[in-house]
Amino acid sequence: xxxxxxxxxxxxxxxxxxxxxxxxxxxxxxxxxxxxxxxxxxxxxxxxxxxxxxxxxxxxxxxxxxxxxxxxxxxxxxxxxxxxxxxxxxxxxxxxxxxxxxxxxxxxxxxxxxxxxxxxxxxxxxxxxxxxxxxxxxxxxxxxxxxxxxxxxxxxxxxxxxxxxxxxxxxxxxxxxxxxxxxxxxxxxxxxxxxxxxxxxxxxxxxxxxxxxxxxxxxxxxxxxxxxxxxxxxxxxxxxxxxxxxxxxxxxxxxxxxxxxxxxxxxxxxxxxxxxxxxxxxxxxxxxxxxxxxxxxxxxxxxxxxxxxxxxxxxxxxxxxxxxxxxxxxxxxxxxxxx
Length: 339
Description:
By secondary structure, this protein is α+β, with helices and mostly antiparallel strands. It is 39% helix and 23% strand. The strands form 3 sheets. A 7-stranded mixed β-sheet has the order 10-9-13-12-11-14-15. A 4-stranded mixed β-sheet has the order 4-1-7-8. It is elongated, with a radius of gyration of 28 Å. The chain folds into 3 domains: 80 residues, Immunoglobulin-like; 71 residues; 130 residues, Glutaredoxin (3-Layer(aba) Sandwich). It is built from 10 helices and 15 strands.
């Protein structure tokens, strides 16, 4: 009997040793498509940072003595990066092609379920985000059904009991916030898709004060394309667009287009509006809306800056046009319109 107990204890000790969890993370793998001059990859979190060597064929292997489970960013350069969730004791092998990590990244080993879930989640959200614009065109009932179906699909992914519980909790909260945000934007986005669709007659601004004197209305500009900037002197993101807007105006100075900036500043900021135009040498047609907010209200403008592109007949081309800093998108939009 004693001999049996000794054997049993020995066997249990052997099993326990085999299942012993390391107090560090083992990370290895191979990443194809690396650039010739890439010799390291960086692992970073809020409280941890380490540089790993990677050979010419994309192979790497190292240990990370992390202090806590957390999300860690693995970056190959300023553009190429992906997120992992590492827990003490994880032993992960990572493979993928850096030219298409979204579709090739695979984790194997202890901790793989959590990290492969994250890869799948990113893919699904990317596809869904690309479809979202068209979903906003649906009626409210069908729209809600589509969003709820997506939410159920993502929740089902989290049902895998091998995914780290801390990640499940965070992802559930993130999913709830993401879905709530999408639904809260339905009214505005639906209007952009339907009421403010391309080809619809644009709401008009009428008799707004012109910085150079007199007043200006949208009808005064008929026969020309109009790129409208709705802004205010207190709005930092608006001010950040001014240099690019001035460059755009200069580039298209001989084209059939007018650049119109409409200030939404309140009465107490009236002088600030005038002074800023002078100080920044702002060009184009500078208008002050004052109490006349109908144009902004009809376009349901809740946040600025907001850019709107209108054709020569006063019809909408893009009710939420690219910003001046988005140069390639702007040029493409103008070219497609015939500018």
